[in-house]
Amino acid sequence: MFLMQPLLRGVVALALVALVGVITSFGEEGEPKVAERKVFTSKEFDFTLDITDFGETVGMKQVIALQASAPEPVGGFAPSVNVIVQMQKTTPAAYLDKTKLELVGAKLALVEGTEITHAGKPAIWVEYTGKMASREMHWYCVAVCLDDRVILATGTAAEKGFDQVSEKLKAAVLSLNLVQ
Questions:
Q1: What's the predicted TM-score (pTM) here?
Q2: Which domains does the chain carry?
């Protein structure tokens, strides 16, 4: 299983235990302060990802390289971004085909799935929806296929309130970049 195996084992479970907090802080006169951009860099797996809107990170050395959740839940779920490094050799076409089969098997609905170029490398873009742990969810992901691994960035949010976070979630996922 390419996409769903790590999601089902780790990402969804980690996202369900995300911390709650405040996205912006306020200055002395009650005006919002502009948040500093926060970019996570993995020198081990050669990527960066903008996590400004998704709080602190939880890093793991194995499959999940990054998990960051928004400090405030939307629709009862804290939106999250994740990066999973899969040590495998594949092509975007094969990865997309397998992902589509896994979505059907998990009873999730494909909104969009296409081969793209991302960070100058062959990749896929997938958007899908469905029920996970009795909650309607919405996902974005970009998977960059390298010679010896796939770097998969995902964004997850509850369907309820998705319109409130979709732009930030998509921007965070698409901020995946490779460190050269």
A1: 0.69
A2: 4-18+38-178 (3.40.1000.10)
